[in-house]
Each structure stands twice: as structure tokens, then as C-alpha cells.
């Protein structure tokens, strides 16, 4: 199969204007967001409908051409980069970007997989509802990618991951057939729930083209604060106190280490840090309520006052306006941008039980510091749901120096994986496996579970055309 043949055939399906051959500018589609993985493609194809996706997939199946599905290309693990020796295309979903319908009464919205997350949030708001998924890349990431990695974000504590936010899916299977279950039903016990196989599968079983997602009543008020703490144990004690006194009003509970905020302050020039960096940890707390007239700021001040009396916090700043609240959130959402500019980032997406988080952080940071004294260790994440991102940043090393950092990354990954497994955790809470973590998955996962994953893959994709080389290693 030559690129010229592929471009000609695919142009007949979607028109030449939406096919980028090797002679065109493919770089935005064959290099991952971090600049770590560089691939090649016979063509980049941009279908506009599910029918066009189906036709492209049928052509690929007939000609033995592999497919790398791609949304906003904002992933952290190389899952959307066309890698390996097989001839393949990038199937880009930008043009599948329609909101199909919304139901205010049914608290549901049906969207194409190429819809940008922020646009789905706006569509929900237009009918006075909330789609709660929120993360730093929400202005460019797409719903299909969010589903394919089972994204989490900053509101999991209250609303859950994408798996919990999904009612129905439309998927183009590896032979081009369309499996459509675009239902908004909250109760349905008619056999296997097949959609769950595609959520978190990273495009290895099929291509998600549409989804029905849950909506919620839109909050009528919120209060946001940043609190300083001396130890992660104090953050967990404060979490228990907040849950007991505030219940479901607790919307987000995010933690950052001082090292993480220092990295942001040094590398994100337009961002102002409105407090001194003199504590070990910083908590971003948000309360929300769907009822009008609730004194959330007063409740938050009361919580922090009690926490101060108990010695759990050393200081706190409660946002006095929406502008100030957004400024505090901007710090949290700048962790990826700041870290990327600080050096070569060896990042982790571990989740451990809440009771084990303090032990996990203590053991991992001590072992990394001993193994690589020059590494800047930064931590951030969703401490309320057990997901802590541990970053080891090697200063002065460019993001594309993966080969030079291979041994260093392997040593640090082993530390994090060993401690995660010892505490009955997961090495990937929300970022997925892709290519970056597939050897790690092979090392820590239950062999029986891996064997059944392979059986599922073989059943759905006997030609092994869907996102080859991702999630499962060739010999795992």
C-alpha cells in the first residue's frame, strides 16, 4: 500500500480537502502533545459523519491498513500517535462535532465524539444544566478521547469519571459495522452492557463516534479556597471533616505540593501566585450547591476555621469573587503546562486507597529522591478520590529526549509501580495506558486479566487494525 493509493481512495470517501498525505503538514497529528512520540501515517483522514467513519474503516479492513483514532491529541501516554511498522492512517474526529440533542427533563445530552469538552459544557449550560467533566485541556480535548481514556478530572469526587457519566454510545467496529446504543435510559437490564468495553479501551476495540452523557442541575453558587498545610495527613483529616460537615456540597478537593506550584510559578509567566510558598502542601477546595441563596463562603470559612483550630491548616485564602476563584483554579489547571517547560517529565497517574495516600506519597518521594537526587519532585492530583500524580522532572532535558531518559524513567517507574502495587492501587487512574505505560501494565497486572483482555481484543479486532501497539504489549 502506497501513500498515493491510500490518499486517492480515502479522498473518494471524505473528499481530498479532508485528507492529508505525507507531503502535507502531518506533524500536528503524528506527534503527541508532549513532543515525546513521533509517528508516520499514510494519511490523516477527517470524516464528518459516522457513515464516513464506517466507510473509511471498511476500506482499511479490506486493505489491511491499521487505524490510529485521534481526538484533540492532548493525551499523556502516546495513545493517539501512529507508531510501529504497520502501514496506518490517523482517523481524526474534529469534524464530528455536532450536539445531536439535549434533554433538560431527562438530564442528558447526545454529542458527536469530536465535540470539544468545553463546547459540551456550554451546550449543557444553554439548557440550564451542567456537564461536570472538567480538566486542564477542556478547551481542546474531545469527548471521544475523554471516553477512550475514561477521563477523570477535578469533579470526580462529586460526579464520577466518564464511565459513570455515560448513558449510551455509538461505535464503529473494526469491520465498519456501527454498534449504536444512543440511549438515555437510566435503567436497562437487557443483557451485557457492551458500551463499557469501549470506555477506557483507547480505540483498540473500535472508534467511538457518538455518546449520550449525563447532565446535572447547574450549581447556583460556589465558594473556592486555597489552604496551606504542613503534611498530607492533615489534608486527609480535613477531607474527612469536610465530608462530615458539608456532604455533597464538597465538589472538588485538589492537592498540590509546594514543588509543583514552584514549577508553575517559574514557567507560566502570565500566572500570579497570590500567596507565599512556605508550606509543604496546598489544597484547592470548592463547594457547590444547586439551591439559590446558600452561604457557601460562610460554610467554607467555618470549615477552615475549625481546621485551623485543630492544627490541620496553617493559613487559607477564600476567594472573594468569581475572578479570584478562577485565578485559583488557573493555578491548578496550569500544572501540565508548567511541568512540561521545566524539563523532562516522568509522570505517573497512580490511584491508591484513601487510607494509604499518605504512606504512598512518603515512600515514593523518599525513594525517588534517593535514586535521582537531581530530580524535582512535584505532586498534584485529586486527593479526594485517591488519585495522586507524582512527577519527577529532570531539569535541562528536552521533552523529546525519551531515548536518553529511558533507563532513568524505567528506574523511577519501577519505584512508583512497586509502591502502588504494594498498596493495592492502580498505575493509571485517568490517563490511560497508550504506549507509554504498556510495559508497566504488563509487569503489574494480573496475568489472567491480561489474558482475557487479549481475548476480547482478538474477538473484536481479529486483524489487529485498531490502534496497534497500544495498551497491550506484543508478548504480555
| Helix share, percent | 25-40%
Residue stretches low in confidence (pLDDT < 50, at least 5 long) are: none
| Count of helical regions | 17
Mean pLDDT: 95
Oligomer: single chain
Question: What is the number of independent domains?
Answer: 4
How are the SSEs placed, and which strands pair?
Elements: H1 3-14, E1 19-20, H2 27-30, E2 43-45, H3 50-63, E3 66-70, E4 88-92, E5 99-103, E6 108-112, H4 117-126, E7 129-130, H5 143-148, H6 156-159, H7 162-165, E8 166-172, E9 178-181, H8 195-198, E10 207-214, E11 216-217, E12 221-229, H9 232-246, E13 250-257, H10 258-267, E14 281-289, H11 296-309, E15 315-318, H12 322-333, H13 335-342, E16 344-347, E17 350-351, H14 357-371, E18 376-382, E19 387-394, H15 406-422, H16 438-444, H17 447-460
Parallel strand pairs: 2-4, 3-4
Antiparallel strand pairs: 1-2, 5-6, 6-10, 7-11, 8-9, 8-10, 12-14, 12-15, 13-14, 13-18, 16-19, 17-19, 18-19
Helix pairs in contact: 1-3, 10-13, 14-15
Can you describe what's shown?
The protein is an alpha+beta fold and 476 residues long. The chain folds into four domains: 93 residues, Uridine Diphospho-n-acetylenolpyruvylglucosamine Reductase, domain 2 (2-Layer Sandwich), CATH 3.30.43.10; 119 residues, Uridine Diphospho-n-acetylenolpyruvylglucosamine Reductase, domain 3; 115 residues, Alpha-Beta Plaits (2-Layer Sandwich), CATH 3.30.70.2190; 102 residues, Alpha-Beta Plaits (2-Layer Sandwich). It has 17 helices and 19 strands. The strands form four sheets. Strands 12, 13, 14, 15, 16, 17, 18 and 19 form an eight-stranded antiparallel beta sheet that branches. A five-stranded antiparallel beta sheet has the order 5-6-10-8-9. β5 and β6 form a beta hairpin. α1 packs antiparallel against α3. The longest helix is centred in the C-terminal third of the chain and has 17 residues. The protein is globular and about 70 Å long. The two termini are 29 Å apart.
Amino acid at each position: 500500500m502506497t501513500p498515493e493509493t491510500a490518499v486517492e481512495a480515502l479522498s473518494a470517501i471524505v473528499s481530498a480537502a479532508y485528507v492529508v498525505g505525507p507531503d502535507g503538514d502531518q506533524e500536528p497529528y503524528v506527534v503527541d502533545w508532549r513532543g515525546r512520540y513521533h509517528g508516520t501515517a499514510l494519511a490523516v483522514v477527517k470524516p464528518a459523519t459516522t457513515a464516513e467513519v464506517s466507510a473509511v474503516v471498511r476500506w482499511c479492513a479490506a486493505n489491511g491498513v491499521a487505524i490510529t483514532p485521534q481526538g484533540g491529541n492532548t493525551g499523556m501516554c502516546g495513545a493517539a500517535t501512529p507508531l510501529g511498522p504497520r502501514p496506518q492512517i490517523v482517523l481524526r474526529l474534529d469534524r464530528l462535532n455536532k450536539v445531536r440533542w439535549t434533554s433538560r427533563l431527562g438530564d442528558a445530552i447526545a454529542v458527536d465524539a469530536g465535540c470539544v469538552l468545553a463546547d459540551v459544557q456550554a451546550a449543557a449550560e444553554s439548557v440550564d444544566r451542567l456537564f461536570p467533566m472538567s480538566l486542564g485541556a477542556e478547551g481542546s480535548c474531545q469527548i471521544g478521547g475523554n471516553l477512550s481514556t475514561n477521563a477523570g478530572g477535578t469533579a470526580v469526587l462529586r460526579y464520577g469519571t466518564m464511565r459513570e457519566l455515560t448513558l449510551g454510545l455509538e461505535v464503529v467496529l473494526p469491520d465498519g459495522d456501527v454498534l449504536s446504543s444512543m440511549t438515555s435510559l437510566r435503567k436497562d437490564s437487557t443483557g451485557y452492557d457492551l458500551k463499557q468495553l469501549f470506555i477506557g479501551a483507547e480505540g483498540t476495540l473500535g472508534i467511538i463516534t457518538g455518546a449520550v452523557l449525563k447532565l446535572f442541575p447547574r450549581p447556583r453558587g460556589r465558594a473556592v479556597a486555597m489552604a496551606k498545610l504542613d503534611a498530607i495527613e492533615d489534608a486527609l483529616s480535613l477531607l474527612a471533616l469536610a465530608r462530615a460537615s458539608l456532604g455533597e456540597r464538597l465538589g472538588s478537593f485538589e492537592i498540590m505540593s509546594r514543588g509543583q506550584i514552584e514549577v508553575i510559578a517559574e514557567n507560566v509567566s502570565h500566572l500570579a501566585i497570590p500567596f507565599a510558598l512556605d508550606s509543604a502542601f496546598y489544597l484547592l477546595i470548592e463547594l457547590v450547591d444547586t439551591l439559590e441563596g446558600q452561604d457557601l463562603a460562610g460554610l467554607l470559612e467555618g470549615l477552615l476555621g475549625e481546621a485551623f483550630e485543630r492544627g490541620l491548616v496553617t493559613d487559607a485564602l477564600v476567594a472573594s469573587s468569581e475572578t479570584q476563584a478562577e485565578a485559583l483554579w488557573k493555578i491548578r489547571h496550569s500544572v501540565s503546562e508548567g511541568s512540561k517547560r521545566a524539563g523532562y517529565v516522568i509522570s505517573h497517574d497512580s490511584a491508591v486507597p484513601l487510607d494509604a495516600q499518605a504512606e504512598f506519597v512518603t515512600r515514593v518521594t523518599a525513594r525517588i529522591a534517593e535514586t535521582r537526587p537531581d530530580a524535582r519532585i512535584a505532586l498534584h492530583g485529586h486527593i479526594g478520590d485517591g488519585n495522586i500524580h507524582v512527577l519527577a522532572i529532570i531539569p535541562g532535558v528536552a521533552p523529546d529526549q525519551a531515548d536518553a531518559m529511558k533507563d532513568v524513567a524505567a528506574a523511577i517507574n519501577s519505584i512508583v509501580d512497586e509502591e502502588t502495587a504494594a498498596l493495592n492501587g492502580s498505575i493509571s487512574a485517568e490517563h490511560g495506558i497508550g504506549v507509554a505505560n504498556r510495559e508497566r501494565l504488563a509487569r503489574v497486572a494480573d496475568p489472567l486479566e491480561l489474558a482475557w483482555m487479549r481475548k476480547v481484543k482478538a474477538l473484536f479486532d481479529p486483524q489487529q487494525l485498531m490502534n496497534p501497539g497500544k495498551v497491550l504489549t506484543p508478548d504480555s
